[in-house]
Every structure is written in C-alpha cells, then in structure tokens.
Amino acid sequence: MALHPVIMAGGSGTRFWPLSRKARPKQFLPLASKSPLLTDTVSRLKGLASVKDTLIVCGPVHAKQAARLVKGLPKANLLVEPVARNTAPAIALAALAVAAKDPEGILVVLPSDHHVADAKGFRQTLTEAARVAASGHLVTLGIKPHRPETGYGYIQVGEPLADGGRQVKAFREKPDPETARRYVESGEFLWNAGIFIFRADVILAAFAEHMPEMTKGLEALRKAVGKRTWAGVLKRVFPKLPSVSIDYGVMEKAKNLAVLPGDFGWSDVGSFAAIPEVRPADAHGNVVSGPESVLVDCKGCVVMGDKRPLALVGLTDMVVVDSGDAVLVVPKDKSQDVRKVVEALKARKRDKFL
C-alpha cells in the first residue's frame, strides 16, 4: 500500500499581508516554526512516505521556490499548473501522475499551509485513513472541534462503516456563531480540514462520474503523462478544465465517502489571530517575534517585527506586523479583514506592495 503525498502549494495567502506577497505567499512563510509551512508539511510525513513519492502542485511563480524548499524532490514530481483552476483539476493532475505508475496508489492530499502539533498522531491517523481508502472509499479527515468556530466548514458524521471510518451525512458551509455552537454541542460535527485520502483509480473514476465535463481533457493529459508532449498538452488542456473545488465537484456528490475523526493539534493558521495556536505566548498572552520588538503593558497581542525597533505600549488583543517596507496594525478580531487591505492596494495599483 504505497502512499503518495500530494501537497497543494498554490494560493496567495492575502490574510498574511504584509508578510505574504504574490511571490511569497503564506506557505513559504515561517509562521509556526523557524521553517516555512511547506517545509514543515513535508517534514511531518517522514516515516510515512518518502520524498520520491511526494508530489507538489503549484503555479509557475512559485515552482522554483517550492523545489528549493523540498530537498530531494524529483523534478517530475513538481506539477506546475499553467493557470490556477481550483482544487479539483489540481488533484486530478496529481491522480493522473500517480496512476501512471501505480493505479491503486493512495493519494494523501494535504494543504501546504497548515500546522500540526502532534506529528506522530497525525501519521497514525493518515495510516488508518489509508487502510480505509484502500477498500475503495474517498476519505476525508475531520477535526474534533474544540470551540464553536465560524471560520471552518463542518462535516456531519453518521454511523460507523464496516471498513473503518464513519459515514458522511452532510458537508456544511461556515456557520454563524449560534449554528456553530449547536454543531459543537451536538457531538455530530467535525471541522473540515481539507485533507483527503483515496486511491488514484477511485478518485479518477469519481471525476468521470461526477465531473464528466473534465473527461475529455483528463484523457488527453493521461495519454501525455511521461511523454515529451506533456508540457504542450498541459498548457493547452489544463486552462480549459472547470475551476471547481474537490469538495463541490466530487466529495459532496459521491456515495463512497468516509470521514475519519482526528485530534492532533491541527490549525489552518488562517490569520494572524491564529498565531497563538501555533507559537508559545509570554505570561501576558503576547506572541512576539523580531529582535527589536518591545512591549510595555500589553496583553494578548501578536507582534512580528523586522530589524528596526517596534514598540507597543498599553495595547490589548492587537496585531502589529512590520515587514520592512510596510506596517500592519489591526485588532485580532478583525484580522480576517487584512485581505481588504490587499484589495485596496490593488485598486490603487500599488503593485510593488502586493
């Protein structure tokens, strides 16, 4: 049962401006440790799968950076999308690459920009999920909720399955606070982590059944895998594939679903407000980085400084970030709105700061 990690390294990470930019989005930032999130994602798979069996999916702007960060990655395992077409086409591309070598090989689809505190527990959960996937299920991981979170989608869990895992009753969009509270109190719901495990042949069959509009394009790509014509076919075909998420295109329609609950200290590190989930805080709840950062009478702040002095006095629950050429100041509870700054800079054509 060979495992093939597929690490999704696309995305712009606009909620981490000014640290994240077009050329250096969230997955390339050392937000949870001294290493970039992408490097941490690969490292926590050690002992579960080898780098030679790992695939990275990203866009052309980030290909060299991704290859540099993942030591030992075979050149053919860097799948570069000509254009961004959401997660369904990206995963289909990876499934074709795996199926060409190992039709029943198991894909472990992982975001490149999440954090896991318990790497051993994470690997154990993935091993169990792979066993369920080997029997023909499309498996997704659900995280046991620790709070009524409105920033995540949810999975409603059903009865246990004979092959392992649980039935999926429904996928739910990000809820309002009252609905999130009801979800958590019911004990029937898990956070949707966006982590998927399935055999290459099973997910390709699912694409054929639930997204038939992709069939012609995927067949053309399948015939070109490993051949000199690959680059040309990819450039011609991939932009024409529908821009659809794997959740909407397949997972919400398929009948052979299974969800596996997990509790391994997961965080999607969705904004600066999530930094205290992945980095230690001081006695006053402040998370501080930067050699010249100084805090006086501050509580619950996230401070990320550059080389110059950055001083805060008397602030509570604030985010202050100095990237060297730009400064961000925002209340923690408004940190999701940082993307609006990026939109404003785009409107003003301030491309050098994007």
From TrEMBL:
Keywords for the protein's UniProt record, in alphabetical order: GTP-binding, Nucleotide-binding, Nucleotidyltransferase, Transferase
Domain of life, source organism: Bacteria
MF terms (GO), sorted A to Z: GTP binding; mannose-1-phosphate guanylyltransferase (GTP) activity
EC number: 2.7.7.13
Catalytic reaction equation(s): alpha-D-mannose 1-phosphate + GTP + H(+) = GDP-alpha-D-mannose + diphosphate
Limits of the Nucleotidyl transferase domain: 5-281
GO biological processes: GDP-mannose biosynthetic process
Protein known as: mannose-1-phosphate guanylyltransferase
UniProt keyword Amino-acid biosynthesis present: no
The organism's taxonomic lineage, starting at the top: Bacteria, Pseudomonadati, Myxococcota, Myxococcia, Myxococcales
Top-level EC class as recorded in UniProt: transferase
CDD domains: GDP-M1P_Guanylyltransferase
Family of the protein in this entry: Belongs to the mannose-6-phosphate isomerase type 2 family.
Domain MannoseP isomerase/GMP-like beta-helix: 292-345
